[in-house]
Amino acid sequence: MHLDPALPPAALLTGVGRRRGIGAAIARGLAEDGVDLALSYSPAYDVRVNDEPSDVEELAAELRDLGRRVVLIPGDLSDPAHPADAVDRARAELGPLGALVMAHCESVNSSILDTSVESFDRHYAVNVRATWLLLKAFAEQVASGRDTPGGAAIALTSDHTVHNLPYGATKGALDRLVLAGTHELADRGIRTNVINPGPIDTGWMSDEVRAAGTAQTPAGRLGETSTVADLVRFLLSEQGSWMRGQLLYSNGGFATPAL
Fold this sequence. Notes:
single chain, about 260 residues, alpha/beta, Rossmann fold, seven-stranded parallel sheet, about 15% strand
């Protein structure tokens, strides 16, 4: 698969802090497709939530070995200034951006009765507000001198809400926001899609969770980070350019009701 030749060959990816994460798999796939990359990540989030340090420097070295230019952009997307700053820095170092792939999230388990206002607000700031501000800044680069022929924006979502309430609720808002972009930003040549990949083990699954997820998946196995990357690569390609304004379930049939 190759990037749509109508798009500038540079992309900003968010949520790319760990080499075994979904964002890292997407970065590898796009690097193979000849895309230069700006990688946004939060070192504090990886330690606070994933309980392991970011190893994005090692990922960047892998991508550079493939001949790609790579820019690392650490920061906290709950800061309302950071999304536009990330787009500006990516453009300054790579030139016009042809793609925005948003794999970032705030995800801390809690329920209706024990979610704190502080936690809910942080989920909203990262999963919804930052997504809006990233998409806005990405779209505004088109109006700036019309130096890029539009682009493609993709966000990752989830419908897991029970006992993960603020995460699931804010991902629902993210869906509506990003899909609206296909219509609101059409005059700028921007297309948008959302991917729901189902459960992907990036280090958080226990054996019990892995077995239960596999049993609920008609494909007979769980998806992998590479399966998400494959769909992103298709959507950013010329062959995938007709897909616009879609919420795509790429989950092997996980939790799909029997017909």
